[in-house]
From TrEMBL:
UniProt keyword annotation of Lipid metabolism present: no
Molecular function as annotated in GO: NADP binding; phosphogluconate dehydrogenase (decarboxylating) activity
Tagged with keyword NADP: yes
Broadest EC class assigned to this enzyme: oxidoreductase
Gene: gndA
Name used for this protein in its record: 6-phosphogluconate dehydrogenase, decarboxylating
Active-site feature positions: K182, E189
Reactions it catalyzes: 6-phospho-D-gluconate + NADP(+) = D-ribulose 5-phosphate + CO2 + NADPH
Source taxonomy: Bacteria, Bacillati, Actinomycetota, Actinomycetes, Bifidobacteriales
Pathway: Carbohydrate degradation; pentose phosphate pathway; D-ribulose 5-phosphate from D-glucose 6-phosphate (oxidative stage): step 3/3
Subunit (UniProt): Homodimer.
Amino acid sequence: VQAQIGVYGLGVMGGNLARNLAHHGNSVAVFNRTPTRTRHLITAHGSEGTFVPAETIEDFLAALKRPRTVIIMVKAGAATDAVIKELADAMEPGDIIVDGGNSYFKDTIRREKEARAQGLHFVGMGISGGEEGALNGPSIMPGGTEDSWKVLEPILKSIAAVAEGEPCVTHIGENGAGHFVKMVHNGIEYADMQLIAESYDLLRRGMGMTPSQIADVFAQWNLGELNSYLIEITSDVLRQVDARTGLPFVDVVLDEAGMKGTGTWTVQTALDLAIPVTSISESVFARGLSGQSAQRAEARKINLPGPDFSIAQQNEGTFVEEVRKALYASKIVAYAQGFDEIAAGAQQYGWNIDLGAVARIWRGGCIIRAEFLDRISDAYASGRQTTSLLFDSSFRTVIGKAQDSWRAVISLATQGGIPIPGFTSSLAYYDGLRSPRLPTSLIQGQRDLFGAHTYRKVGVPGVFHTLWADTDRQEIQQN
Ligand code: 6PG
């Protein structure tokens, strides 16, 4: 058989993706640098569909029908570059290389250019949903040319998750657009997880509830407007008990969060684009703080002064509901910031990204899948929203109703010494955005005083500088 598509790299993600392709009637050529992996896949799963195993690059490419399309599932970075080179050297004009890893979008822009110079198509493709998603239906974010999308579309639609009858895949835009959107997906994922962790902390240390009681709270929240994959799995994790000690899993796990870099890229990119993604950056920094083990140990040892991490005299049921509302409001801010970054990236890099379509393909398969994405896609699709999601009538109403709780939770947490940087920064962003005047006029004055950096004035055209050192402090118009 001539296979329709090839998968290069049969780690867990690659192997699962190859099986998913085969399950949906696609014939799949499979290749791995160490052939034992390929043999293992065929032994364990060969009967699930049509696989064509290959042990050399020549056999692998010879097994593919034209244009030969290969999805690379190897580690982002140098390994990906090496595999692209290996394939590109052996491929012919018109062939398509798809990078399904978590690559940095600027690498994708560069690789696409290089491949194009060789007459090849290069598609940077974000895939979300972890191992389970790769096997049973991920959310897929391909970039690259329209021509390669035409080839990939039926194949990707066959394996993507389905949300409300629609496959969770769309052509995001040219070159690095797919990886850019996947990167921001991960940034939002970090924020979502941080906000959930803060909610847990408020109930655990603040209210003294047990992990299993809090698991029940999350299960309850999952039935309402917060319904989402991350809320659902939070319940599971909180119910988990350590087999060795019988203690809650969350009490025996080291509280230093790992990260592989996509959240950091989201924030670095946002800084370059001058887009304030404060809810996302706080969540990256919160992981960073958790990993500062030496400083944290010393802080404990010298007993840095502060309140005892509890919230006093609150009715538990009332407080749980207030936290739920604060979580939802903060989450809306985090998503609004993430979508702002996508819009700014599209502008900067010349991509035509349909934000409503992005929200639609995130409704299923991916880690941040949530009922709430329906409301985001509505806001964009209806054309109601072009600036910030926060201005959309549906979210305005939600935040309007939630904000008293949001503010109350933040006050109580602050008084009790429980750090909730995600909640706090989200509210600060919201209040900053709605402030008629900001104290940044003062900053402009300071800048002009010490460095003659100039300023503009309300309702007066032109750029000004004050001669601060002179006694009469004359104001000069500069242009
Ligand atoms: C996904 C995830 C995935 C990522 C994990 C881990 O969409 O399936 O985003 O791509 O590997 O989220 O990321 P960190 O190790 O950085 O937390």
